[in-house]
Amino acid sequence: MSTTRREFCIATGATLAASQLPVLAATADDAAVDRLIAGFAEELLVDYPESATMLGIDGGDRATLKSKLADRSAAGQKALAERAAQRLARLRAVDPASLGDAARIDLDVVRTAHEFAVEGFEFPYGDVALLNSQWSYRNAPYVVAQNTGAFLEIPGMLDEQHQIATAADADAYLARLEAYAGQIDGETGRLKEAAAQHVIAPNFLLDKTLAQIRLARSGTVGDWTVVKSIERRAKNIAGDYTARAAKIAAQKIAPALERQIAELDAHRRRATSDAGVWKLPRGDEYYSWALRAGTTTRMTPDQIHARGREELRELQSRMDSILRQQGLTKGTVGERMTALGKEPRFAFEDSDAGRAKLMKYLNDRVADMRTRLPRAFATLVPGNFEIKRMAPEVEPGAPGAYGGPGSIDGKVPGKYWINMHDMGVFTTYNTPTLTYHESLPGHVWQGEYTFKLPLARSLLAFNAYSEGWALYSEQLADELGVYDDDPFGRLGYLQSIAFRACRLVVDTGLHAKRWTRQQAIDWFASTNGSSVGEVTGEVDRYCAWPGQACGYKVGHSEINRVRAKAQKALGARFDFRQFNDAVVTGGGVPMLTLARNIDRFIAGSA
Questions:
Q1: pLDDT tens track for 132-174
Q2: If phi over 0 gives left and psi between -120 and 50 gives alpha, with beta otherwise, what is residue 126?
Q3: What does DSSP say about strands 385-389 and 414-418: parallel, antiparallel, or unpaired?
Q4: What's the rounded Cα separation, in Å, for the pair 390 and 382?
Q5: How is the chain split into domains, by residue range?
Q6: What is the predicted pLDDT for the residue at 394?
Q7: In sequence order, what are the residues at sequence separation of 6 or more whose Cβ sits closer than 8 angstroms to the Cβ of residue 125?
Q8: pLDDT at residue 23, as a whole number
Q9: Which residues are within 8 A (CB) of 439 and not within 5 positions of it... i.e. 6 or more apart?
């Protein structure tokens, strides 16, 4: 799909709101569908203004979005759900058979994302983030948790993505600070409603959440990130923005945080240690939906659980062979990997020097990967990003790392965030594959390809595709030879893939088979040889984001399935670089759509 078509879609959507577009006839042509989807993109930006900021498109005709935040109140969520349902009805009215390939894919992507979102909004609790490009990778049964909520998500967005170059930008920042306080209160209201339905996070999640939110509330407001950020960036703009930001923080944000802390304390007094969503109203239905949204498949919990165990056996067989070659023969694969992880030769010191060493190590891996990428892709993107440490108040409840692309115009680089709270989880053999997953050729790399597609395609993502691609990127690194002289690095790569197979077992174990938190931690750590500290954070994440962790291995396996199909069909005509291009340039799609895209690739290459 060409940049020209993207520009056409943006221009159309910028001048015509989706609600003003006519209802399309079932036999609509490509141009009509382009206009409809461009209009829907603009409507999504209004619903989720942070998405415009993330992509760097919150200026010009969209400048009003820069001062707004998505409405996290109960009334706001109801309005979002109603608009999503209205868009879905219009998308379902279009017959895809009348469209060309590009328009049919766009229609399928936008319709499927809305179908999953509308299903999720039907539950009277939780947070549906599928249509918000900032946080579309997760859905949460709990409005606020150790990895979900305004108190975690908004300050980072304001500091890293909200650009300040003019007084208008600074004014918009202050407007968002005011809105931030309101969104905290909106979530607090939803927490009260959830408690009335007996929807309360497990006590161990609430303990983490309360520690984090108290840390966010602590200290002098003048030292808060949201105040220091504008102080640093608006120091040459007249208007005393630092004092005004501090006043909003003291008079509005701090009291809102205190009200949320009080509500979470009330939840904690009623909380149990039950880890899975089976305990919630319609819990089994909720998990079934979360799995569908997280994997874009119809696989059942039992099927996913069994697949995890089967794939784990195959991966550990490969690991066993490498371990034996290194003279490590005693114990299970998990026990041997546990012992390996304790060897000082692989460790990074838990100190400022150790953190600096880790940061250099990560940057060196990226520099090496850049030299290899032309061997895997015929179509290249810039890969514009930086590696940064997470904020201290975020680290305790966050994963070990995460990453994504920057703004469309390149002014804001992508980020590869690294969690240095517990240095014990990092080794010289497991951090390379983590880096390829989050940066190049993983999330940062893949995300930049969506910038060439119509705007709606940059706004909508599918967890199974994006995480499946990132896992496939780890595989590409191995296929590009990064571990040819590093058997321990290859062990780290295989352990990473096995880690994702374990997720299939643990996530379904918690939510469908009623595993306890400790049962999940013990099985995960002993089976994969990961540290208890690492898997504890992982298990807690699955409790807060059911189904999300299953998307990784399901998506990865599907990419490999369609690759094997293409190799068999094309034989000597199969082109490794062209196949990778076909997967990544097609953008984020549901798994069924990916299969159809590769069928077209096969037909075009035959």
A1: 999 999 999 999 999 999 999 999 999 999 999 999 999 999 9
A2: left
A3: parallel
A4: 24
A5: 1-140, 142-273, 287-558
A6: 80
A7: 141, 143, 193, 194, 197, 199, 280, 281
A8: 57
A9: 366, 369, 383, 385, 387, 403, 414, 416, 445
